[in-house]
Structures are given as C-alpha cells and as structure tokens.
Sequence to fold (282 residues):
Amino acid sequence: MLAAERGAAANTLAAYRRDLEACQELVGDLLNATPEQLGTLAHGWINLAPATVARRISALRQFYGFAQDEGLRGDDPSALLVRPQARRPLPKILSHAEIAALFHQAETEAHSGKRASVRLLALLELLYGSGLRATELVSLPRMAVPRDAPLLTVTGKGGKDRMVPISRRASLALGRWLAVEPGTSPFLFPSRGSHISRIRLYQMLKELAVRADLDPGKVSPHVLRHAFATHLLEGGADLRVLQTLLGHADIATTQIYTHVDAARLVALVNARHPLAARHSAS
Fold:
C-alpha cells in the first residue's frame, strides 16, 4: 500500500519494515495483538530515543489503519499508545572554513587527473552545490545531465522529479568527470554494473575529511546537504525557493533551517555584543 498508493521510496519501505519487525519481536503476532500486549511495548522501548519511539508508534498506527481498511481487524489496538514529544534536533552543518578546507583538498587531488579523485570532486560539488540527497546523487542517470541547460533532473522521495540548478563550479567538475568516464553505464557514477552505493559515498567523504585535517565525524553527505541549505539561507535565499531546491513536500521541514540560522545569530550576539564582554568580566 505504501509503495502503490503513496509512492513511498525503497528506503522508506525498509524503515517501516524494520520498525514493525522490532515491535513484533516484543509482542509477537502484530495483526492479532491486543491493546494490553501493545501496552507492554513501553517497557521494551525504555532505552530508545523519543524520536525512535514516536516513529515506531506511527508505523504501528499506519499498520493497523491499513488492517482496518482491508477488513483484517475491527479495531485499532494502537490508539492508546502515547507518542513522546520529540524535539527535532538542529541539523549538523559545516562552517565556511571547513567547507573551504574540504574543497581545497578535493581540488588538489583532482589535479592529478586520477579517475577516483576527479569523481570525488564532482560528487562533492553536487552535494554542496546542489543540495542533493545521497541516494539522489549516487543513482543519477547519465541522461540527467543536460548538454546546454544548467539544470539537473533529479528523482527524489516518492519518485517525484524536480529540477536542480548546477553551479558553474559543479558544471566544470562534471565536465572533467565525463571526460574520464567512458559512458558505457546508464549511471553517472557507475560501479560494478550499477552505481556507487550510499555507503561508499559516505566512506569517501570520511576519508577526504581525514586528509583535509577535519574531524571525519562531522562530515557526511547529509551534513553537506544541510550546509548547502543553511549557507543559502544565510545568503538571503527565500524559504520557498529552498523548499523547491531540497525537494521537501512540506515547508515545515524546510523551516528547521531558520532555527539553525537563528541559533547562529544568538551565538554571534552573545560572543560579539559589548554587554557580553562586560558580563563575562563581572
């Protein structure tokens, strides 16, 4: 149902499966579980983060809603489960200096002309320059790169297509990559008959961070996507435009970046305002 009616992506389907299987391990047969049995889940979830608990309750409610619609049950035993109030954490980002260090290392390595180095620079430019998700990036078809228009056609969550601008830097990096990639694969970044995996992309960025003398724990594909969004917002980008670029279905998801920017402004005032220095001296 999630795939056919809602167009859920493969990663979303896998996440629902993991959550439902984790619940089933604690209470047994979910389809025939009683409200009392589901009530015991709270004890099994005691060490889980509030966001994880909320996600699992949501998965259960959708499962039982589907069961009722299909006539498999006459009630919803998950109705009494109380979702914890999970505050969405602010996304991790990199500073402008850290981004510069990362790119300096990637550009220096790409000057060697080695295929892997040229590819890594192209990947980095698209992550930070266009804000693509890791899955969107690694699975880009070769035909998504236009010959004349500065836009990429990206298939995002739920199979929805959107147009994403390519910066001049990213366009140059892609041109260098296409010059060394023979083009026998339908994917822009091929690997062993398919495309490179998200895990491999994650590993490559961690390794690059180490070579750039940065903390590898701070660098990931999603962190670069967050940096793209936050730095655009700092530069005056409109929130609606940012929503379109990121492929968010709901602008409420995009609004998290206004909180990041607000946090940065508060830190700036606390560090630089004259009264801050007077307070610390007293």
Notes: The chain has 14 helices and four strands.
